[in-house]
Amino acid sequence: MSRTPPAPKRPPRAATPSALRDAIRNEALRLGFDAVGFASAALTADARGHRRAQLAELLASGFHGDMGWLADRYEERTDPQGLWPDAKTIVSVAMNYGPGHDPLAVLQQTDRAAVSVYAQGRDYHDVVKSKLKALGRFIWDDYRCDLKVFVDTAPVMEKPAAQQAGVGWQGKHTNLVSRRFGSWLFLGELLLSIELPVDTAETDHCGHCRACLDVCPTRAFPAPYRLEARRCISYLTIEHEGPVPLELRPLLGNRIYGCDDCLAVCPWNKFAQAARDRSLVPRPAPEPPLLAELAALDDAAFRKRFAGNAIKRIGRDRFVRNVAYALGNSDRRDIALPALEPLLRDRSGVVRDAARWALARLDTAGQRRALKKARKSSADSRSDSPG
Q1: How far is CA 325 from CA 125, 217, 237, 251, 354, in A?
Q2: Looking at 152, 199, 260, 334, which residue is catalytic?
Q3: Of the candidates 127, 144, 378, 98, which has an alpha carbon nearest to the alpha carbon of residue 263?
Q4: What is the pLDDT of residues 298-339, one digit of tens each?
Q5: What pTM value is reported for the model?
Q6: Chain mean position to CA 147
Q7: Topology, domain 17-99+117-206+266-284
Q8: Residue 72 bears catalytic tag
Q9: Rounded CA gap, 48 and 53, in Å?
């Protein structure tokens, strides 16, 4: 959250609320945001109660897993004016990060790492925040309106705010969906101390579609619009610090940071387009990185490789833990065994645990292949015998 900067010396521009709203929208689009919407920061009693009930149900069910911060600042999280009593208007902005390729194709390359699209370019927190701060500076310098800036880390329920502002709707996979950009949007918010005309809230356009629910490898959706984070691959590979539950490890496949399955299959992506901000475009590489190469990263090499990237936030140990699971799922003993054996002596207990599991899984896979080969050989011998 950013606070209001010092006042410039020149007097503020005069503008009607409608003109100020239009000026903010135009400047946001000029700065590189792809969608801008306006909503009231003053929730009705029904809307406030609905948000509180949703969050309370999530916390009571334990679906949030290790994300204890969801319970922190409860009142502020469910009410913008609980976060800042002077807030009158929410400006919801979005940046498209749509990929220019099939993000699920890498899942067939089991010796390579599948990384969520959003983490293949520069850290979006830095990109969105820098543009939001520039937008906030424009508003303050020209119109002297008190404001606060938020990107992801503050207790703002950004997806309900974006839906209220007409940017998109919260789909059955619980992420925002846009009729213009599909499921590929980064969000940010400005709270303004002035009341501006608002946009029409977006309505739900998911219909009877279940594509995002049915594709989930770990069945993390107990019902539409409900996500059990403890089974979500994005949560397990990014937020969860300890060992991943044994029954879920095989379902990770080669996903080492996040998961795009539910986003990628959304039919609304037929209207999506590749990101136009170059900093959000995946860093150029001929192919996804090799798992064996990533398994060899020590802390210094990890920090250097992922400088300015969202992956750096989880730290080397959690990252290599994920790589070890992926190697165990690769069914490529030729590359996995040499990469995993050094990890048995790793200083991190969670990495050692992941390496032991992966080696045991590969050994089991090797035994299955040997048994299958023996059975086939036996069957061939019987068919060749004189009858």
Answers
A1: 28, 15, 10, 10, 6
A2: 152
A3: 98
A4: 999 999 999 999 999 999 999 999 999 999 999 899 999 999
A5: 0.84
A6: 27
A7: NADH Oxidase (3.40.109)
A8: no
A9: 9
